[in-house]
Design brief:
By secondary structure, this protein is mainly alpha-helical. The protein is built from 3 helices and no strands. It starts with a helix and ends with a helix.
């Protein structure tokens, strides 16, 4: 229900009824640019929070399933994988430079 109250605050006219959908004299409440931007920003923040929660849950699932909850082992494996990728990338850069020379 909190989104509804935020919507009402952003779009309901100051003199109008605070009842959901209430309009003085049957006129539509004006949609202000600021109110619309605030509503969209809040919606985007909620979507991003759900995405972060999903990614965090997948990392926790990996740690529990593959590393028996050993976070340190998981972090070390990620560091090792990054290091191997960097070395492979550096080696391919050097081989590309040698081919050009």
């Amino acid at each position: 229900m909190e989104m509804q109250s935020g919507w009402r605050e952003a779009f309901a006219p100051a003199t109008g009824s605070r009842i959901w959908g209430g309009r003085p004299h049957g006129r539509k409440a004006p949609i202000t640019r600021k109110g619309l931007i605030e509503m969209l920003d809040k919606s985007r923040e909620e979507e991003q929070a759900q995405g972060v929660d999903g990614r965090l849950a997948s990392v926790v699932r990996i740690v529990v399933e593959q590393y028996d909850g050993d976070v340190k082992a998981f972090v070390e494996s990620i560091r090792h994988r990054i290091e191997v990728n960097r070395k492979a990338e550096a080696a391919s850069d050097h081989s590309d430079e040698a081919a050009l020379a």
